[in-house]
Each structure stands twice: as C-alpha cells, then as structure tokens.
Amino acid sequence: MIDFRRGAPVAGSLDVVWHAGWPSPKHDPAPEIQVHAYSEHTVILRQNKSVHFEAPFLFLLFGNERALLLDTGASTDPAHFPLRDTVDRLVADWLQRHPRPGYSLVVAHTHGHGDHVAADGQFADRPRTTLVGPRLAEVTAAFGLTDWPHRTGTLDLGGRVLDLIPGPGHHRAALVFHDRHTGLLLTGDSLYPGRLYIEDREAYSATVDRLLDFCSTRPVRHVLGCHIEMTATPGEDYPRGTTYQPDEPPLQLTADHLRALRRALDETADRRGTHPCGDFVLVYRD
After folding, report:
1. For the domain that residue 161 is a member of, what is the CATH number?
2. Most buried residue, 38, 83, 138, 213, by most Cβ within 10 Å?
3. pTM strictly above 0.85
C-alpha cells in the first residue's frame, strides 16, 4: 500500500513546456494529447489546440483502490481525441509498477460545459468505471454533497483523499478539487490564466470566499485551472478560437491569485463586460 499521507503535500514537477498548437493545425506534428507526469501518482494531460481551440487540461490521479480522471475534454471522436486509449495506457503502466487486483476508475468533472465532458461516451462501457454525470443532482448524489453549496465533501481514492469544494458561479454544478497528497487545488474554469466567465456574480463571489477560507487552513502548492488563454503580457489574452499560442504563461497560479481575484471582483462589482486583471480577465455574462 502506498502511504499518500507521508510528507504531504509532496512536491511535483511543472518543468514542462505545454504544446500550444501549431501555425497550421492540420500539419501539427504533436500528438492529440500531451501527457506530463507531475509525480509518480499524478498525471496532467492537455488536449492539443490543433484538435480543439479550447485545449483543456485534464487530471489523472492514482490512489490505492481507484484512479480519478477529472474532465474528458472538448472532442468526442476517439479517432481525433483518443482519451480512453491514453488513460487505459496510463492506468496499465501505473498498475505494472504498483500491481493490485480490481482497480477501478472514477470519471468526474470540474463542471459540465461541453469542453470538459465531450469524451464521456468513450468511458461508458469501460469495465470497473464509475462515470459521474455533470448535472447538479448527479454531482451532489455521487459525492454526498448535502446542503449545496455550503458544505464541502471528500473523495477517497484509497488512502489518497481529495477535498471537494462547491464552486458555482461559472457553472451551477462546478466543483473544485483539493488533493491532500500533492497540495494541488484544481479549480476548473473558476480560476486559471485566461477569461473567467462569470454567469452568476453572487454565487461566483461566494465561491471565491469559500476557496479563500479553505486555503487559509490548508497547504496549497499550486492552483491549476483547465485552460491557458493569456499571453505572457499581463492583461493581454489570446482571442477566443485561437489555435496557436506561442507566447503562453505557465498554467500554475497560487493562492495569492485568489486574493487578487477577490480584489478584482470588489473593484468591478458595479460594472459589466470585460475587465483585464493581470494574470486573468473577468468577463461578466449578465
């Protein structure tokens, strides 16, 4: 058995250059999915922008009894986006190093927008797999999240425990995952270096406060969202639909960015539209 509590939060590697598309997408020599091992038991995947401009990040976390795949990307067809084959290979490789019988997979989501759930169907017939639907009733039932969005929950992968923090505002069933083993805070589309689309101001503001309260008592090594949409120039983003982003900043943010987000929300509370804020852009959709 792997002791996921010892030394937690353990360090990982973000020494990676994320593939950010190609000048001519149809001639892109890179694979459809970039795979980076953050640690022995944690894998970060990115869909190629040449396959879909959203290029979402996905996360695969291994525990003693089951693995968690967080999000399934923006494309359905396995011929163009072989997510199931990629995950099966990664699981098989991990089990070869850490053999155990009856290992299972949980497929869940940061939220239910199409660029995060498109390949769910690739896992529908996968053995020993639990696919958590993205609707609010499905999320709360699967994870026992009563009194939504006021109470947090936990998911135990077998000695590796994740805190589940309700995160509505961008999407009504959005969920933030905190991995106690690595200290990673996986924020989906609630916070990342890009355009933060706010559908419900009150709910989103409450989510930011909830995350700040959580981070005040928990170690957070990195805040990892699901997209990169900014350039390396503060306040300047790539246009929506861009398939080649050669001047990207890193994916990882920090808990300080949550505090900056709180200030930005306060400063723009009575405004509408789009507001560049350094490492992210607020976009009010009301």
Report:
1. 3.60.15.10
2. 83
3. yes
